[in-house]
Amino acid sequence: MPVQGSDGLWALIPLVGTASSMTGLTIGTPAPDGWKGWAAHHDTVRDFGDDPALKAEMERLQAELAEIEALGDPATCRICGGPDVTIEHAPSQASGNRGPLIGQKIDPVATRALGHVVWMKGEVIGGSVVETLCVRCNNNTGRRFNPAYLAFEKVCRPLARPEAARALCSVRVARRPLVAKQVLTWIVATSHPGFTARYPMLRTLLQKTGAQGPIAPLRLWCHLMANGGTTWYSGITPKVNALRREGHLMSSFASSPLGWILTIGNLEIEGAHDVSSWTELDKRAKPVTIQLPCQWRLRPQPDDFRSRQEILAEAAARAAANQ
Ligand SMILES: [Zn+2]
Question: What predicted TM-score, i.e. pTM, was given to this entire model?
């Protein structure tokens, strides 16, 4: 369920890239007034109103998200809480985020008026930027963490391709805590305010290069992206398992060649590699080889790894069933 965060839900597709992956993007009807989530699956939308347990679980998640958001101030730095936020590229320009891009964002007014999710589309010149970190945090995180992230990206780029979809790829990764801290910086920068106030270990980890420690109850997951030229920010978004009537909050930052999901609580992301322990390592920890699954990221839902064929086949089957 994509949620409209304070910055909206952005899907950024570079003009040279995989714009076709956006066609056929449909999301179900909006949730009742005052709710921030939109159910992603038609069956869930249908069941939602009739199922008190499902509704209660969604309300619980909305309250959890509201609690996080209430701890922060949108005008202050998402990492340190200080004033004077500045414009920052996410991902960095060195990662290829220089634009032009086509950006899409949920239009909250039209969505509510029309009863289905409406996307605003626009060209983004000069790469995708956010304005959520102060000058100091922006400079410090970029200088300390970005070189390690760029090196990891360089190793992953030739492996992350359509032919590798669903396969496990052996990837050598060095300076793991710094890689994790870079992606956590972007997740925090593109998520709701209050995230680091609610989970202060994020603040410590991102402000001090040498800081080590667990991120529990958060977990960080990584995968390669089979589709190139795509960036997704989700912000903190609720995901509800309709069968188990159990939900969790998660956030995601994906930018080819790497996709990342941050989950809150006891939620397994099937098809992604758990790298939560990277923040517990010393920054001098030796490089290791890991097995990263390569997944499609064609849809805004962070853990929707379906291929284009699967998305179209499911849509066709649903249309046939509804006739
Ligand atoms: Zn700051």
Answer: 0.86
